[in-house]
Write a structure and sequence with these properties.
About 45% of the residues lie in helices and about 20% in strands. The protein contains six helices and six strands; from the N terminus they run H-H-H-H-H-E-E-E-E-E-E-H. It has a single domain, classed as Nuclear Transport Factor 2, Chain: A.
């Protein structure tokens, strides 16, 4: 049964089939605008149509990615695999910072000098599943609320909020945001602080 799930996840994700028109209906912005003009829609309505299409596309990508990620969390290190095989789905800055952190941690196995949690899940444990919820747009960036499920129960608040960009026809994770006890943080900021602490410790 697990093999079937893993196969299904790979069918959706590798290499970027979730980004292909067959699996993820993404229309180029020019095509969408052209359709809007043909229908005589106003500029405001055209923007709304583009946002709606991108929002659905973004949510689908995030859902497919987390399905794949959870399946591989049970038998290995999915973040390492993702950074090697699918690094085109992560921004160059995020890949660089994560790899720096992992190399530093490998050099000091007896100390905590890097991330001590899974930054994609924002957890030290693996839940049953993660499900995307609301998607909001802030300029070029899309924020997707992702909820965790334990024992069939959905988390009251998002476990993590990935930040994505749509570049070169594909979705790219540019950051991961976290909120707990009214305090907000994000992965790039955490990695920067850890790097600064490592330099101070030298």
């Amino acid at each position: 049964m697990i093999g079937s799930v893993v196969y299904a996840c790979f069918a959706l994700f590798i290499p970027c089939p979730i980004l292909s028109p067959a699996d993820q209906p993404i229309l180029p912005a020019t095509a969408i605008a052209g359709t809007a003009r043909e229908e005589g829609q106003s500029g405001a309505n055209r923007t709304q149509a583009v946002d709606s299409t991108e929002t659905r596309s973004c949510r689908k990508f995030v859902g497919d990615f987390y399905t794949w990620y959870i399946a591989h969390s049970k038998s290995g290190d999915p973040l390492r695999t993702a950074l090697k095989r699918y690094k085109s789905n992560f921004s160059a800055e995020l890949v660089q910072r994560l790899n720096e952190d992992r190399r530093a941690a490998a050099k000091s196995p007896g100390e905590i000098v890097g991330l001590d949690f899974d930054p994609v899940l924002n957890s030290q444990d693996t839940p049953e599943k993660y499900v995307p919820g609301a998607v909001t747009q802030n300029g070029r960036r899309f924020l997707v609320e992702v909820f965790s499920f334990y024992s069939g129960k959905k988390s009251a608040a998002p476990a993590v909020t990935p930040e994505l960009l749509h570049e070169h026809g594909r979705w790219v994770f540019s950051n991961f945001r976290y909120k707990s006890d009214g305090k907000s943080d994000d992965l790039l900021s955490i990695l920067a602080h850890l790097k600064t602490d490592r330099k101070k410790g030298k």
